Amino acid sequence: MSKLNKIKNAVITALITPFKEDFSLDEAKYREFVRFQVEHGCQLLSMGTTGESPTLSHEEHHVAIEITIDEAKKTGKNPFVLAGTGSNSTKEAISLSQYAEKAGADGLLLVVPYYNKPDQHSLIDHFSAIADAVSLPIILYNVPSRTVRNIDVDTVITLANKKDNIVGIKEASGNIDQITGVIKGTPDDFLVLSGDDGMTYHLMALGGVGVISVASNIIPSKIVEFVNTMAQGNWNEARKMQMELYELFKVLFVEANPGPVKYAAERMGIMSRRMRLPLSPPIEGNRAKIDKVLQSLDLI
Hints:
- The chain is an alpha/beta fold.
- The chain has a single domain (2-232), classed as Aldolase class I (TIM Barrel, Alpha-Beta Barrel), CATH 3.20.20.
- It has helices spanning 27-39, 58-75, 90-103, 120-133, 144-147, 153-162, 176-185, 200-205, 220-231, 235-251, 259-267, 284-296, and strands at residues 10-14, 43-46, 81-84, 107-111, 138-142, 166-171, 191-194, 210-213.
- The chain has an 8-stranded parallel beta sheet.
- Helix 1 crosses helix 2, helix 2 runs parallel beside helix 3 and helix 6 (153-162) packs parallel to helix 7.
- The longest helix has 18 residues, at 58-75.
- The chain is globular and about 50 Å long.
- The termini are far apart.
- The model has no long low-confidence stretch (mean pLDDT 97).
């Protein structure tokens, strides 16, 4: 698992997904976007929720992961490719995870099962079953605002000690007390990554090791600089950057993710804002808010 060093104190971009006018996957634009991210120093997450994975078919899901792996290799920079393979069906998550492993992914991101609200002992059974079915390193993903189920600190600690290939967690609970408990209670080599750009400063100050980022879709170099500044212990400079980027981090969630960041990406000439229903681009008033922040940072 030596390649895991690639994601220590790193920025992993939760890749947004480009669509054509007919809303089919724009494979050429996706390849271009993967190269853009790698060239700016980011590691890669394909098919996270920021990539609109719930509205892609399994076949499209496979294609997106394959493109990410293939294009990452072509860059010659050997970035870490994380594949989002979680589901509220353990059988489906295993199938997606095994496919990603065969395709050549470096690791898996597994979201807490949504909607069916498994209890904590069931979460242990769920993640353990997936860990037993693959050999890749696994990053758990805790985002109770979306899944309606928190993965408790004791559950994370149990899984970290029970399964060798459960190596980290993407923490998007927004709960500093929980994040502190996870960092304190898990082994020293367990990777605790921010799942919220606005919390990265706080999480890394506690001993976290980077971010799975939404903002890096549009400002990859700046987020890499931000994380590197903290990794080097320059907290005064990092605090200045946190304040500089604070309004951007906020406005990128003025509506459901990834609507705001896709709109920002279009305004910056990166890709179209097109999204698949039930998600749609931000309304006019929120577009104005996003524009204002982008203008303040000289991004448009």
